[in-house]
Amino acid sequence: GPATFQRVINHVLGRTRWKYALAYIDDVIIYSKTFEEHLSHLKEICQLLKDTRFRLNPEKCEIARTQTEYLGHQITNGEIRPSPHNINGLLNTRVPQTADEACKFVKAAEYYRKFIPNFSQIAEPLRKFVPTTRTQQKKGQKTKITLAADEIKAFEELKRFLTTDLVLRLPNNRFPFKVQTDASDEGIGAVLLQIYPEGDRPIAYLSKKFTQAQRKWSPMEQECYAFICALDKWHNYLSGIKFTWETDHKALTQLNQKAQINKRCERWRLKILEYDFKVKHIPGLTNSMPDYLSRSPVEDATEDPDETFFTASQSTQTDHELYNRCYHVVSAVQTRSAKLRQTTTDTSVNTTNPIEDSLLFQEENRITPFSMEQLLQTQQHDEYTQNIINNIKKYKKYFISNDLLMHRSNPPVPYVPHGELRRTILRIYHDTAANGAHFGRDKTLHKIKQRYFWPSMYKDIDNYIKSCILCAQYNPRRQKTPGKLQPIKPPEGVWQLVSMDFHGPITPTSRRGNKYIISLTDILSKFVVTKAVRDNSAQTVVRFLKEDIITKFGTPHCILTDNGTHFTSSVTNELL
């Protein structure tokens, strides 16, 4: 299939991929800076294809072009535009007569959404013709439709935008990058720019709607979230380089200096520290493009995985107060000998009351750590739960029974919001003798998922069991006991004791073919010497010591290594 062919062609291109060649299935593009360099690249790619018995179709080959069309885009002089051929096909499209025709037009236009500002808002009236499931797609393919006035306006507006000359610049590493972000009540917006001598040029746009929960965030959280989304979207452009971040929220310019911030911003601050950037405050009036995108978001709102599935680390200490409160419940084990009745409905949901099955002692050896009223009250005060309940039609895996949010499992079980209730469940079904007995991860998971559900169950249970002191004390080790650390005696002077090691292999390989870094550190002064090298052989070690260490700084008195073969070989020993 196509996926298999893609893996094969990626393997064939090997180290040339992303260096000066790319392939999308059977379309290969080669890019070079000069004509002579291009001839060399062509020769190498053709040789690779010949060695693997691939054949080229001469009629479809374009060689030494300064302008080309690739995957529906026209690339020329560092700029990218929609392909005129594809645009003409969209412009000649008649007004859709069926739901299938409307769906195809929206999806075709959506391919060029990065060229159309505010695409989501323009195409919103036609969105209802785009199916969300295969069943809807099969049912609605031949349905005759008559477009309303707003739908015809959206259709014509999209065609009008496609006729304009919308251009984006291709990234050029010779010029610095700049990120502008903004947030509004509706969502976030961001622009990736490059600073050219004649002015800033856009590389990409980004916008996203807020969920109901995100609308309740503070302005600082919303503005910071805009930058986080930009970093996630453009990580390949911004990682490892120095760039500028411009925002109209002045408090964010002191984000790294703030001692007290909430946990959400603290997690984001740790992520932001991975990048090398300078924050610059700009007035809101000059931050027009991100401000426009944030008020007219392009992408629909989705739950942020960092917010949906984040769980605080479990404490290894026992909450004696909570344990005492739950003791009378934990010690009472309810049993039942009769089997659960199994009946089905049109929706394949058990017709017995799912709340009773989950909360009212309807399974063998069942322990209920809290009452149904407590769980219902907790759900009513949980933002994420209320978001699901308010949009229950979008969440197919959930349903509501007696005002309680349930998960469609077999049997149906209640959803447990993030907080103290989850920790109570973990304590009872792992720590207590009545129903826990300090079983392992799989048994504990099996017991809990038969009674409750939350998205990060597996991760939470695994972390809780790993942090259990009793399990760590009494479970026998299956690995060899680690040896004791041997402390290094501090040297008396510089260059008396140095340490040396390799780092790598690093992918992708550099332009010069280097994929390792060899480093030498003086233990006393922490002076470091590093060098990028092609391999980690003994010859490389000897060459590094001769050319970069001994001839420049003199011979160190003692070298500390990890006894790798490249350090203990005869070639290295002859030098030392």
Question: Could you describe the 3D structure shown?
Answer:
This protein is an alpha+beta fold and 576 residues long. The chain folds into five domains: 64 residues; 85 residues, Alpha-Beta Plaits, CATH 3.30.70; 138 residues, Nucleotidyltransferase, domain 5; 148 residues, Orthogonal Bundle (Endonuclease III, domain 1); 79 residues, Nucleotidyltransferase, domain 5. The strands form five sheets. It has a five-stranded mixed β-sheet. Strands 3-4-5-6 form a four-stranded antiparallel β-sheet. It has a four-stranded mixed β-sheet with strand order 17-16-15-18, with helices on one face. A hairpin with a 5-residue loop joins strand 16 and strand 17. Helix 8 runs parallel beside helix 10 and helix 18 crosses helix 19. The two termini are 56 Å apart. About 11% of the residues have low confidence.
